[in-house]
Each structure stands twice: as structure tokens, then as C-alpha cells.
Amino acid sequence: MKYTPVIGLEVHVELKTKSKMFCGCSADYFGKEPNTYTCPVCLGLPGALPVPNKKAIEWCIMIGLALNCEIPLFSKFDRKNYFYPDLPKGYQISQYDQPFCINGFVELEGVKLKHPEGVKLSVKLKKKIRIRRVHQEEDTGKLIHQTINGEKVSLIDFNRSGVPLVEIVTEPDFESAEEVKEYLQKLQQIVRYLGVSNADMEKGEMRLEPNISLRSNNTNTTNTTNKPISNKDLPLYKVEVKNINSFRFVEKAIDYEIKRQSEILDKGETPKQETRGFVEASNSTVLQRSKEEAADYRYFPEPDIPPFRWNESQISNLKSQMPELPDSKRARFEQDYKLSPYDAEILTRERPLADYFENAVIDGKKFGVTEKEITNYLINKKPNIEELLLAQLIQTIVQSSQIADIDEEKLNELIDKVLKENPKAVEDFKKGKESVIMYLVGQVMRNFTKRIDAEKIKASLLAKLK
Q1: 249 touches 278 (CB < 8 A)
Q2: Final residue of a domain: which of 309, 335, 362?
Q3: Domain for residue 314, yes or no?
Q4: What is the model's pLDDT at position 355?
Q5: Which of 112, 205, 245, 457 has its CA 20 to 30 A from that of 188?
Q6: Residues 75, 96 contacting (CB under 8 angstroms)
Q7: What's the gap between Cα 229 and its chain centre?
Q8: What's the domain count of the chain?
């Protein structure tokens, strides 16, 4: 392999607080009439002062704790200055050098060892993705591009302006689109378990921005500026792809950028440091602007919001409110309920399903229903747990486990019918292929709506076949 991808991620997660980050406007803006959930604060009018949302800050710190972050006892807000139509103040209240959460990590499960020639082995290694920071900021307004009276125009809806936003920034530890997808799925699962965001990407509640570059695996490779493209240090550039709203699209954007940048490097050139957008129709990226550096934003401390000084007891109190997280719950399901890793993973994907399963286990014990029976029903039948009461679930499982009486005359008729319809199976059995008997048993059982004794059917079939 000529180049190794070097990928970092910035993920923005909207919090589902009742009010916005720095004002009392409702944060439930999606689908509402444009510019109806606004006030002087989120419109950035002169003289309006921000008041931080306590719940949003607590939830930001809880996300940090769930991602194994350190929580500094001192933090502050900063002004990130840039001029764009969806930013009414001309700056965004964000965090720069002293965020709420730093130095965390997430472990990926699906990294496979590979033979030097590319042959996959069955061994899996965990990979640690470092989290640089988790910080709090406010969302911007939303640009709406339309054609009015034959003229293309851009309109601005400020309903989203000021909605609490958490940005989660990783170190450039990813080496493939597959690793990125696994991390994002895990991150989405964690914030949903915490109950701080629905992370619905179709609604823009979770937005993905990969930073992609390539590192040469040849130490002698140079670019046209005669600077070495190191195989140890970070590359001399990075390309950011903005505001992607699906796991599938982020994979396609990364794959496209790896191919595009490889072609540039093959010419002995260095890709430009820039911000690009993803084009869904062609699965490609297009230039938006040259990428800004931190200095371009002229950060300085937010003068209207005092710094935050935490004490250990406040952080401990937030830790005590943390629910059991997906990895811990999955491991406990395997141990306590003797579930396979596959079953445990499915049952813990969503917290409501995991809670439903555990409550069903408690109720099922009263009627002799096992954890495995409940697991099989939930995974195979996929019932709507919002509508199916626990009592109905247990009753259904109990009824399905009861063996119904079989009318001998009807059974004989069905067996004759099955044997007549499956002459090849009958011939194979008579030639010594005894395993085919179970296929014939299955064909008979398909005619019964209730559970019946398979051994009895097998015995009746054997009697007719011999």
C-alpha cells in the first residue's frame, strides 16, 4: 500500500434541551415556520446578553465522561469570529483553549489483524481512538436556497440559531472509512443512551466532518516543494469535508478523497489544504473554500459570560447520574443472561429495547419463560415494543411453547401430500441420504399454525418411507 490514510473527525451533536443555549427560546425548532422561535439574544441584536443553559453544560460534561474524558476544574466560553449570513452576531459563542472535556478515548472492536499479503485472520484487536476535546457551543442559523420569481436566492431561518451544540473532536487516529463508521455508530449509540440527543442525522441533529489526508509509506517520497512527505509525522496538509449527514455518505466521501489525493500525490504534488463539500448525486467532493486556521477566527474570551470553576463534588454528582453505557451493558448481558455476543449486541443497540428485555426476563420467570426464549422472540419477530405489553409478550411465548395435539387422520393426509409433492427427497432418502428426513418434517410442520411434536411427525414419516 503506497499511502496510509490519516483521518480525524469533528462531530456536532445537537442537544435536546427544552430551551436554546443562551436564551429562553424553544430548541424544538425542526419543521416549524421559519423565524418564529427567535428573540434578541439568538438574533444577535445589540445589547442582548447571553445566559448559559445549565442543563446543556451538564449534558456536555456527561458526554465527555462517557467518552472517558478528563474534566478540567476551570473552563470558559470564547468568541469565534467569522462573517457568514447564518451567524447574526458576526461571531459564534464556542470554546477554544479551555473546553469542558479533554483527553478522552473510545475503543473500537472491529479491527482485524491482516497477513502481510492481505489475508484476513480471525483475530480481532481493539483500537483506541483518542478524543482531543468535547466542547460546548451554539448552533448557527440555516440557509435555505430557493428560486423566487425566476431568481435564485438564499433565505435564512434563524430558528436553529442558538440551539445547544456539542462538538466532539478526535485525534487523527483513523486509517479507513470502516473505522470511522464504527466510531460514529458507537458515538450515536452513546449519546442516545445518555438521553441527551436523538442524534437523528436526517434532522441535522448529528453532523459529521472528517479531516482527511494521506501519509506516504515511502520515506524517500517528496513533493514539488522538495519537502519530505513523512511516514511518521502528520502530513503537510489536511482536507475537511463539511456537514455530512449519514454514515454511508461519510464512507463515500472518505473513499473519494483517498482516491483524489492519491492521484495528486502520485504526480509529486501536495493536495491543497481546503474545505470541501460532499455531493450526494456523484458521491464526490467539491471545493468550498481554503481551510481556515485558528488564528483566522481571532478567538478571545467571551466577555459577557464569566469563567466556570467546578469542584470535585459537582463532577462526582454528574458521574452518579450516568446510566449504564452500551459496552458495559453488552458485557453484562453476556455474563448474566448467558447470551451470545451476537444476541447481546442486538439487544443493547437501543436502550429502550435493552430495558424491555430485562423487564421481560423478570416477568418471564413467573411463567417459566427463559432468557433465551425471550431473546429469540425479540430478535426473530422484531415486535413493536412500544405497543406490545410485557404481559402479552410472555403470554405469546408461553402459548407458542405449548405442543398442540395432532389429529392422526389429518397428519396422515398431510404426510401423504408432502411425500407426493417431494418425490426427489423421497428418492434421496431411499438411496441412503437420511438427513433429508428433517426437510420433510419441516414441510409437514408448515401446515400447522401451532407448535407440534416434531419427533412424532418424524416417526410417522419414517413408518411410511420404510
Answers
A1: yes
A2: 309
A3: no
A4: 97
A5: 112
A6: no
A7: 33
A8: 3
- Residue 444 sits in which domain range? 408-465
The pLDDT score that the predictor gives to residue 122 is: 47
Is 41 part of a structural domain of the chain? yes
Question: Distance (Å, rounded) from C-alpha 174 to C-alpha 7?
Answer: 5
Distance CA 360, CA 319 (A): 28
Q: Is 239 helix (H, G, I), strand (E, B) or coil?
A: strand
Decide: 50 and 93 in contact? Cβ < 8 Å: yes
Q: pLDDT tens digit string along 148-176? A: 999 999 999 999 999 999 999 999 999 99
What confidence tens digit (pLDDT) does each residue in 246-288 have?
999 999 999 999 999 999 999 999 999 999 999 999 999 999 8
Cβ atoms of 74 and 97 within 8 Å: the answer is no
Place of cell 442537544: 15
Cell output for 389: 405489553
SS3 448: coil
- Put the strands of the sheet holding 206-216 in their side by side order: 101-114, 120-138, 164-170, 3-14, 206-216, 239-242, 274-279, 284-290
> Residue 371 has what pLDDT?
94
What is the per-residue pLDDT for 224? 46
Cα gap 126→383, rounded to integer Å: 33
- CATH number of the domain to which 450 belongs: 1.10.10
